[in-house]
């Protein structure tokens, strides 16, 4: 395996530049937006501008390497693919809630080897390279040491279709009695980073795009989390993403399945 760390440097440099752009666009005027699949699925002009910038910079620094992005699409190929969420947490961005990111990952044969998740509103940078650990602003990250499901904090996100949201909300309500508390923070990449930092003990969500988990999933795994990506956890659902501190991972996974998450 090649040394993936230079790819992190590229992702962080581009992430910072794109983050500065989305912050300028947030400050300058009314945030214009469209809806996509449903009224809860939004895209702003800043999402599109950020992805354009990231694609331009990648084509300059890594000519010929394919890019999969949330707004312009693309596909994952054998070898290297860049996976970009130009603003993860767009609804937070729209409302001025400072919990959104620019997420950039490099995947090799479909698996993340380098990732950077930049928070434009705070300037915090989360990074990981496969085999080299994960970091917040250069400080190493470690998942929580919790071993007690009933004392764990669980993050979650909702899908866009109303019927599915209802089923998810029902399962979520059942989990409320089994854990310390629940959080729906609104940016999947940062939920995964939160597991890496021990700010959440676990996180799960169904129906994420690859751009939502590609960088954050690596950051969580490199911090010691048990991470299951879409397609690897049929009991929890084919499109489930799951990340948890190892001391509660099995108990959390079972509790989620018992609570009905496998059928949402
Ligand atoms: C969304 C956020 C949200 C999650 C959704 C994602 P976007 O990403 O990560 O937390 O619940 O599933 O689509 O659309 O803001 O990039």
Automatic annotation (TrEMBL):
Which GO biological process annotations does it have? inositol metabolic process; phosphatidylinositol phosphate biosynthetic process; signal transduction
What are the alphabetically sorted keywords of the record? Hydrolase, Magnesium, Metal-binding
Q: Which organism is it from?
A: Lentzea flaviverrucosa
- Binding of Mg(2+) occurs at 70, 85, 87-88, 212
Entry keyword annotation includes Hydrolase: yes
Task: Enumerate the cofactors the protein uses.
Answer: Mg(2+)
* Catalytic activity of the protein: a myo-inositol phosphate + H2O = myo-inositol + phosphate
Kindly indicate whether the keyword Cell membrane belongs to this entry: no
Q: Please give the name of this protein.
A: Inositol-1-monophosphatase
Q: Name one GO molecular function term.
A: inositol monophosphate 1-phosphatase activity
Similarity comment: Belongs to the inositol monophosphatase superfamily.
Q: What is its EC number?
A: 3.1.3.25
